[in-house]
Design goal:
This protein has 651 residues and is of the alpha+beta class. Helix content is 39%, strand content 11%. The strands form five sheets. It has a five-stranded mixed sheet with strand order 1-10-13-3-2. A three-stranded antiparallel sheet has the order 4-12-11, with no helix packed on it. Strands 5-9-8 form a three-stranded antiparallel sheet. Helix 15 packs across helix 17. The radius of gyration is 31 Å and the shape is elongated. The protein starts with a helix and ends in a 31-residue tail after the last helix.
Length: 651
């Protein structure tokens, strides 16, 4: 048994190496040896039946060894050389995934846990791939990838599931197309159909589209528990699906990371802890580390879940339909479902996996498995597929690089800031922390303003036809590496000039100017008005920097001592503990705030050099010339072209 196990690398895996157990679903013939087969051997690879038997024997032996706590006896004095990863080669060090974690250990117990996790992931991927095969090509087009445990290496973050090429894919080719079919694609519009008889008409929660899709995720989880949405079962049996689509959704829900995997304490197994599931202390640290406040998101989720729990889930006649907990895997696993905890987990799933494509937020099973890479990748985008190329779909393209069979296919999650990557996906790509710094400032028109109603009327009806502005607005301030100045968004200054309009400048709010006043705000109005707008930006920057200083003092660290530094350090921190991730975000946002503050201080000193509304208006009327008492000066008195009674005018 020992010799046979050594031949298949299972014995090496038990000894603590990074070898992987091939699942029995792998189909390889004698002309294509499996990747775990030793290159020096001259024997025929075992048959599929033999491999399945060996796998069963090895896993049984593993259980016995683990139970008897004799695993350490198999730990070699020196670690064996790393084996070829089972599916493709590791991604570059710049590659990150939404469920990544850079945990590593040298203990044999951790190796056993990693082996069991790998076994579970292979089983999940195998079940999901079987369901995908049954749904192709009805629901999946151009299928050149499959779900598999994502390759990992010592220089990249540990990974969970990803999409791996099953054939060579050329550059700028479609690797996967998924039509927008309500049978499998979850969207806010589908939520209206599924929950229409349960939620009140016009329901609009604080969490918006994400909250509606999160309700669909919980419904799929409830149906996967065995009730199937039928009479007396859990969940709503909508939408009506074909059998193959039902099997796909059930396998997909089972493959999602559990709340324990996505929480800080249980974030092993290749899953990065999501900030929505962090501990309260770490969430408080993130609250003080970024101007994009996580408490706002948490409050929205808690408000919606409390309302749903009171009005919908806990109703006397609905407790069986919407259970707070469900069981999976024949009762072995318990999950929070229709409860505040389950709703928060579902929002974390939607936040980290949904894509905004073709004007709507969509959670697309299988396509949601795609992992992030900064280099030579594109975002998931809309396209067309079908026989005549007229069916709208979401497309995964290969950009400018070629993928070989077995390589993981990745995509870009978009040009987001470090704080947005952390709050949505739970990690920070190195490029986001180094190349671009983004912070968020919030301003509002004070309700105590004597001209509040007039300003509100301008914002609502005279700004942008397609998207009227609210009295409270958030603006991003952006600093790019190598950029000398951080110039605020022009719309930011335009909004502040309107909100600070007062005194002698308030005549611009008269109804005669109502159609033009928003355009007037695009340039300085008066020195006093411009000064108040500049001061508002400077004060917001100082307040944000002060909060970060307090956070650093309370956390007992000093981010100023570790500036941009080496990319390797940033790469490591981007997949480390919540405290390290918060430090990365603070450094990025501090840079944007500091540069903006410096720019606005220079603007404050140059207020007397700007041209304001009165000067521009006089120029428009041709009345900007200086007064001169010289009678021979034609510019004096009646202008340059006419005198009283001398003009040829048609009165």
């Amino acid at each position: 048994v020992e010799e046979t196990l050594a031949e298949t690398n299972l014995f090496c895996a038990l000894r603590g190496s990074r070898g992987r157990v091939a699942d029995e679903s792998t189909r390889l013939d004698s002309t294509h040896p499996p990747p775990f087969w030793p290159e020096t051997t001259t024997r025929r690879p075992p048959s599929a039946t033999m491999r399945a038997s060996l796998l069963s024997a090895a896993l049984a032996l593993l259980s016995i060894m683990e139970a008897s706590e004799c695993v350490r006896a198999f730990s070699p004095p020196t670690a064996p050389p790393p084996l070829v990863a089972f599916l493709g080669r590791p991604s570059s060090s710049a590659s990150f995934q939404r469920r990544a974690s850079s945990t590593s250990t040298s203990s044999s117990a951790s190796s056993v846990s990693a082996l069991r996790a790998s076994r579970d992931l292979n089983a999940l991927a195998s079940e999901l791939n079987s369901a995908i095969d049954a749904c192709t090509p009805t629901y999946f087009k151009n299928m050149r990838v499959k779900v598999a445990p994502s390759p990992s290496s010592s220089d990249s973050a540990a990974r969970r599931l990803g999409l791996v090429a099953i054939e060579d894919i050329k550059p700028n080719k479609v690797a996967l197309s998924v039509p927008y079919d309500d049978q499998i694609v979850l969207s806010a519009s589908l939520a209206g159909d599924v929950w229409g008889d349960v939620l009140p008409e016009g329901y609009d929660g604080w969490t918006g589209e994400r909250g509606l899709i999160a309700l669909l995720v919980l419904n799929e989880l409830a149906k996967a528990s065995g009730g199937g949405g039928a009479a007396g079962g859990a969940g709503i049996d909508l939408p009506a699906r074909k059998p193959e689509a039902k099997n796909l959704m059930a396998a997909w829900v089972k493959s999602l990371p559990s709340p324990e995997e996505m929480s800080e304490d249980g974030g092993g197994g290749g899953v990065c802890p999501h900030p929505l599931l962090w501990s309260e202390d770490d969430q408080e640290l993130l609250q003080g580390s970024s101007t994009k406040k996580i408490y706002r998101t948490l409050d929205d989720i808690d408000e919606d879940s409390a309302w749903l729990n009171e009005r919908v889930w806990s109703a006397a006649d609905r407790t069986a339909k919407f259970p707070p907990e469900i069981t999976l895997d024949g009762g072995e696993t318990t999950r929070a479902c229709f409860s505040p905890e389950g709703f928060r987990w579902a929002n974390a799933i939607v936040s980290s996996r949904a894509v905004y494509v073709d004007g709507a937020l969509r959670l697309i099973p299988v396509l949601d498995m795609i992992n992030h890479d900064d280099l030579n990748t594109e975002e998931v985008r809309g396209g067309y597929t079908g026989t005549f190329g007229t069916t709208p779909c979401a497309e995964l393209r290969t950009s400018s690089r070629k993928y070989n069979a077995g390589e993981e296919v990745c995509a870009s999650y978009g040009p987001l800031s470090a704080a947005e990557y952390l709050s949505d996906y739970g990690f920070v790509p190195p490029s986001r922390a180094e190349s671009i710094a983004v912070s968020e400032l919030t301003f509002e028109v004070s309700s105590d303003d004597r001209f509040y109603d007039d300003k509100l009327d301008v914002l609502e009806f005279e700004t942008y036809d397609s998207s009227p502005m609210d009295p409270t607005q958030k603006f991003d301030i952006v600093h790019r590496a190598g950029q000398p100045d951080t110039v605020p968004d022009p719309a930011l200054m335009q909004f502040l000039r309107l909100s600070k309009l007062d005194g002698k400048d308030a005549f611009l709010l008269e109804s005669i100017f109502r159609k033009e006043v928003w355009g007037f705000m695009s340039v300085p109005v008066s020195e006093s008005n411009e000064g108040m707008a500049v001061d508002a930006v400077m004060e917001a920057c100082r307040v944000a920097l002060g909060e970060m200083d307090e956070t650093e003092e309370s956390a007992g660290d000093d981010d100023t001592s570790s500036s941009s530094g080496d990319s390797d350090d940033d790469s490591a921190s981007a997949s480390a503990s919540p405290a390290a991730l918060c430090a990365v975000v603070r450094r990025a946002e501090r840079k944007a705030l500091t540069r903006t503050l410096e720019y606005m201080e220079r603007e404050r000193m140059a207020l007397d050099l700007k041209e304001y509304y009165q000067e521009r208006r006089l120029k428009d009327l041709g009345l900007d010339s200086e007064w001169n008492d010289d009678d021979e000066n034609s510019d004096v008195g009646w202008g340059q072209t006419r005198a009283p009674g001398s003009g040829d005018l048609d009165w």
